[in-house]
């Protein structure tokens, strides 16, 4: 059970975030100020903001759960993430930075037309709602455990609403500058909390504990299985993680407004490249820290299952340790770090969703309005998306798989078509708007059918069976395609369809 001092730490942190978030906003007169921070922010702050935005509570509680229940092979994804960022830095960023763009989808509007811009924006909005809805729900997990330890049974919806309100306040007032500077603070908080946890776990475990972890295979980082079945079905096989993770990173950091907005806020192309590529190395460090936390927790609890620990899911293991084992004050700090990760992602999403809505969907309307009116509507849009987020976050309560994997797989439904559309625009000169629109829609539909209907058999072949019952999958030993391949498959389908359609033009 938490000490009153821990609650004081958490309350002070939350109050400080709101206060300093508002104070860091500066003067805002236009949407350029509100959504891009007037392009005055240093590249290292943008890099930290990228990391904090993509990290979220999924990383803080989900990645330790992955290591606790498996190995550290999840780390292989970081090599793909680095590869994908390098491609984006040299293929996408020059085009983005050449124009005066406020969203990633402005490029598609200039290349194809306003219909393509709006379709991609709507797709982004839907994807972010689902993916970051998972992230917001993940934050409620440790908070609920805290409440239960204090004898209060708070439901997930109430917790989610509280987090949403606090984050919406400073995002509404402070805009992009507040979001970025609070990301820097929040990243520091959750990293310090995780490192302190590692030190305390090492001190609590007997000598030779890491040797036991290694002998049990928990410290395994690289896993190279070259069988077709493993490559297609296991997400953390080396080839799948690097290639699939690389393509996924191209989409997440090259076509997702959540990240592209940060790159567009840089002073110039050089700063944008440093911010993007630098973020990959920060992510590597973070993944390593949280995987080590998970492995040490496995040793601390002697490999007990979630049920044996009295938990509903492995994502609750790290919060359980925080509440029951960390010293007074430190527990409050680490829990504040979990909240920090969640609030950084949520605030970034709110600002990005408002930016895309104002610029991509209603740009023609607001172009006729003065800056004061547009700025006011941008703030109202931020509040509107906050309410919608709260609703969507409550939809994931019944899912049992680690929420980090759920969040990553959701984005893959649409990332393929988004990436494919951008690549079509840059690589295939004859593609017209109609071609791109058809290819985009076909790509999304194809991915829905593939994700829910394509299954891999033990010999590496595939079969189509739409949403089969669990006993059927077990009887036939069917496995789904590993989620890192979703984006690659979706983008490939989109590019193929668009290229074929373009051949009809002279």
Describe it.
The protein is mostly helical. It has a single domain, classed as Sodium/glucose cotransporter, CATH 1.20.1730. It has 21 helices and three strands. It has helices spanning 4-23, 31-36, 43-69, 77-91, 93-98, 105-111, 114-149, 156-204, 209-215, 228-233, 238-254, 257-264, 269-300, 317-325, 330-361, 363-366, 371-393, 403-427, 433-453, 470-476, 484-502, and strands at 454-456, 462-464, 479-480. A three-stranded antiparallel sheet has the order 2-1-3. β1 and β2 form a beta hairpin. The N and C termini lie far apart (72 Å). The model is unreliable at 399-405 (pLDDT under 50).
What is the total number of structural domains?
Answer: 1
Count all strands and give the number.
Answer: 3
What is the fourth-level CATH superfamily? Sodium/glucose cotransporter
CATH class: Mainly Alpha
CATH topology: Sodium/glucose cotransporter
Name the overall outline: globular
- Roughly how many Å apart are the termini? 72 Å
Which CATH architecture? Up-down Bundle
Strand order of the largest sheet: 2-1-3
List key phrases describing it.
506 residues, three-stranded antiparallel beta sheet, Sodium/glucose cotransporter, mainly alpha, single chain
Topology of this protein?
Blueprint: H1 4-23, H2 31-36, H3 43-69, H4 77-91, H5 93-98, H6 105-111, H7 114-149, H8 156-204, H9 209-215, H10 228-233, H11 238-254, H12 257-264, H13 269-300, H14 317-325, H15 330-361, H16 363-366, H17 371-393, H18 403-427, H19 433-453, E1 454-456, E2 462-464, H20 470-476, E3 479-480, H21 484-502
Antiparallel strand pairs: 1-2, 1-3
């Amino acid at each position: 059970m938490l000490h009153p001092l821990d609650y004081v730490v958490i309350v002070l942190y939350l109050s400080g975030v709101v206060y300093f978030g508002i104070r860091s906003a500066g003067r805002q007169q236009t949407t350029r100020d509100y959504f891009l921070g007037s392009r005055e922010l240093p590249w290292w702050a943008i890099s930290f903001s990228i990391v904090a935005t993509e990290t979220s509570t999924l990383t803080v509680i989900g990645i330790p759960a992955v290591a606790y229940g498996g190995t550290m092979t999840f780390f292989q994804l970081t090599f793909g993430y680095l590869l994908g960022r390098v491609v984006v830095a040299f293929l996408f960023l020059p085009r983005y930075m050449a124009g005066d763009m406020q969203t990633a989808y402005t490029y598609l509007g200039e290349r194809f037309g306003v219909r393509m811009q709006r379709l991609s924006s709507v797709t982004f909005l839907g994807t972010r709602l689902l993916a970051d809805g998972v992230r917001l729900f993940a934050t409620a997990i440790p908070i609920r455990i805290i409440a239960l330890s204090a004898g209060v049974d708070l439901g997930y919806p109430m917790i989610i609403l509280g987090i949403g309100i606090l984050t919406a306040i400073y995002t509404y007032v402070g805009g992009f500058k507040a979001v970025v500077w609070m990301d820097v603070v929040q990243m520091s908080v959750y990293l310090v909390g995780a490192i302190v946890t590692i030190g305390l776990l090492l001190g609590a475990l007997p000598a030779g504990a890491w040797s036991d972890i290694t002998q049990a295979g928990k410290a395994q980082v690289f896993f190279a299985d070259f069988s077709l079945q493993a490559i297609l079905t296991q997400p953390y096989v080396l080839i799948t993680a690097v290639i699939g993770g690389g393509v996924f990173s191209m989409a997440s950091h090259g076509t997702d407004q959540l990240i592209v907005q940060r790159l567009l806020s840089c002073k110039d192309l050089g700063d944008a490249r440093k911010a993007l590529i630098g973020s990959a190395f920060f992510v590597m460090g973070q993944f390593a820290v949280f995987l080590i936390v998970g492995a040490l927790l496995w040793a601390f609890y002697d490999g007990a299952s979630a049920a044996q620990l009295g938990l509903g899911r492995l994502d609750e293991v790290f919060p359980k340790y925080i509440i029951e084992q960390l010293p007074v004050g430190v527990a409050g700090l680490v829990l504040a770090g979990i909240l920090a990760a969640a609030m950084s992602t949520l605030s970034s999403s709110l600002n990005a969703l408002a930016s895309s809505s104002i610029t991509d969907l209603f740009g023609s309307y607001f172009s006729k309005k003065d800056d004061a009116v547009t700025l006011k509507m941008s703030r109202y849009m931020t509040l509107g998306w906050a309410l919608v987020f709260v609703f969507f976050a409550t939809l994931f309560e019944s899912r049992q798989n680690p929420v980090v994997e759920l969040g990553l797989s959701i984005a893959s439904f649409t990332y393929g078509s988004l990436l494919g559309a951008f690549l079509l625009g840059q690589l295939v000169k004859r593609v017209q708007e109609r071609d791109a629109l058809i290819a985009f829609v076909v790509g999304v539909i194809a991915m829905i059918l593939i994700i829910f209907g394509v299954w891999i058999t033990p010999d590496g072949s595939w079969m189509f069976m739409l949403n089969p019952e669990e006993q059927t999958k077990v009887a036939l030993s069917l496995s789904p395609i590993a989620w890192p391949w979703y984006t690659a498959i979706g983008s490939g389908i989109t590019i193929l369809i668009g290229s074929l359609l373009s051949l009809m033009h002279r």
